């Protein structure tokens, strides 16, 4: 069941007990929410509380909101600083009645609790509950489920996740048919190095290789998370197609140098003109919630196949009409059927348990493959073969069992560095350009 299930519900608040951080009395219907991570902003919007967000953090690249949710926020949302370093004075001025943050930002939780009821998403519990599933969908489901019980809308979980699930269900066979036996690599180009993606427990790597079933480059098969790829070893890449994360002027300069290097030119994807630069604003944290992850799926399909998903799952068919005082009207990126608009309301003129939909709730959730196999490699039996895909965490909140695989906590294999900043919470994603940045920006959480 959800970790944050209220221990008590009165006629004015839900009591959320947090063993490490104390209890939080969450209003039954929060009206002034502060979210201190884009994943939480994404989930809150998907669950119909977008109009209640009064402040959130900005992207590390500048004083702008994260690309995958910026167009879904109310126009007057306050900018509260960057991830892990919120502006406490601005938060105080907003007079929030609920603050949402993560346990990988522990430094200011005590101060936040003095401002308003603060709920801390327990990622350490996610790893203990679910384990390694090679599935970003599993993680996103867990997150939405937890946020839903905090907001008191657990019945909305499946509806909030449906566009993402539909996009994955549509994309998987499309990618398999288009790619066949082709392999795909995912690299992060930086000024000083090249990073190659492994499977990952969740995040974009797991979305690509697990949920979408794309065959990884053989070098990636041997990796769990990201590792540095020396220039001398670049010719060992045999990927037929490459996705490349190139963020910032220095990375762009490095990539330009690579394209002229004979070693880079030996990679099949380069020779066949099948290297695709992904939009960094989307791929940095875009996988963290159902709305952004749907947009990432659409982008992956378009780049690797040259095709579009069914109109029902395309982001441009989503609507985001958000108005204060008349309830939240929230469009899910990549929503389903008809005009793609999915509307939740939580204002006084709607019961909080009600979910109103505009248009037809189109294609039902297609049965997902019970196995996270890659296209063309279902007969693999070695220890790198993805485990059986557990069932999604639905509205009832019952997690599926996952087969353990590899190191779960405390090991960051990227460039041989030990976990930084928050001990075992190697999931924390700092800016790749920030001093001490511990993980690649586009790797998801692992």
* Dominant shape: elongated
Strand order of the largest sheet: 7-6-5-4-8-9
**Major sheet characteristics:** 6 strands, mixed
Tell me the Rg in angstroms. 21 Å
| CATH H-level homologous superfamily name of the domain at 169-308 and 369-416 | Nitrogenase molybdenum iron protein domain
Could you tell me the mean pLDDT? 72
Counting DSSP H or I runs of 4 or more residues, the number of helices is 13
As a percent range, the share of helical residues equals: 25-40%
**What's the CATH topology name of the domain at 169-308 and 369-416?**
Rossmann fold
What is the element string, with H for helices and E for strands? EEEEHEHEEHEHEHHHEEHHEEHHEHH
Name some characteristics of this structure:
446 residues; alpha/beta; Rossmann fold; six-stranded mixed sheet; five-stranded mixed sheet; 13 helices; 27% helix; 13% strand; elongated; disordered C terminus
């Amino acid at each position: 069941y959800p970790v944050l299930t209220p221990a008590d519900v009165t006629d004015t608040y839900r009591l959320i007990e947090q063993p490490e951080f104390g209890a939080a009395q969450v209003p039954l219907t929060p009206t002034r929410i502060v979210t201190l991570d884009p994943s939480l902003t994404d989930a809150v919007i998907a669950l119909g509380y977008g109009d209640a967000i009064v402040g959130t953090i900005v992207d590390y690249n500048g004083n702008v909101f994260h690309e995958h949710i910026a167009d879904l926020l109310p126009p007057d949302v306050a900018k509260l600083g960057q991830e892990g370093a919120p502006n406490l004075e601005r938060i105080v001025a907003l007079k929030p009645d609920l603050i949402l943050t993560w346990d990988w930002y522990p430094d200011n939780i005590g101060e936040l609790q003095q401002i308003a009821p603060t709920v801390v998403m327990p990622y350490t519990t996610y790893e203990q509950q679910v384990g390694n599933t090679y599935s970003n969908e599993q993680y996103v489901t867990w997150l939405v489920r937890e946020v839903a019980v905090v907001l008191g809308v657990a019945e909305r979980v499946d509806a909030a996740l449906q566009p993402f699930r539909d996009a994955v269900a549509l994309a998987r066979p499309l990618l398999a048919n288009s790619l066949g036996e082709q392999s795909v690599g995912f690299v992060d180009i930086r000024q000083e190095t090249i990073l190659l993606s492994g499977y990952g427990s969740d995040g974009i790597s797991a979305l690509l290789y697990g949920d979408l079933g794309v065959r990884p480059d053989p070098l990636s098969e041997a990796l769990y998370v990201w590792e540095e790829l020396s220039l001398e070893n670049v010719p060992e890449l045999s990927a037929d197609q490459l996705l490349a994360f190139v963020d910032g002027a220095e990375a762009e300069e490095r990539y330009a140098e690579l394209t002229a290097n004979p070693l880079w030119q030996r990679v099949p994807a380069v020779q066949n003109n099948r290297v695709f630069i992904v939009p960094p604003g989307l791929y940095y944290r875009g996988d963290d919630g159902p709305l952004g992850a749907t947009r990432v799926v659409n982008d992956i399909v378009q780049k690797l196949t040259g095709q579009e998903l069914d109109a029902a799952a395309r982001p441009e068919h989503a609507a985001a009409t958000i108005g204060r005082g008349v309830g939240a009207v929230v469009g899910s990126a990549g929503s389903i059927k008809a005009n793609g608009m999915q509307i939740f309301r939580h204002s006084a003129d709607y019961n909080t348990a009600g979910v109103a939909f505009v248009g037809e709730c189109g294609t039902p959730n297609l049965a997902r493959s019970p196995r996270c196999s890659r296209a063309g490699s279902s007969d693999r039996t070695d220890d790198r073969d993805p485990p059986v895909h557990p069932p999604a965490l639905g509205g009832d909140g019952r997690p599926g069992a996952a087969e353990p695989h590899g190191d779960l906590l405390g090991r960051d294999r990227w460039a041989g560095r030990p976990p930084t900043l928050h001990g075992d919470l190697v999931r924390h994603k700092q800016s790749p350009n920030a001093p001490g940045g511990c993980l690649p920006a586009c790797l998801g959480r692992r």
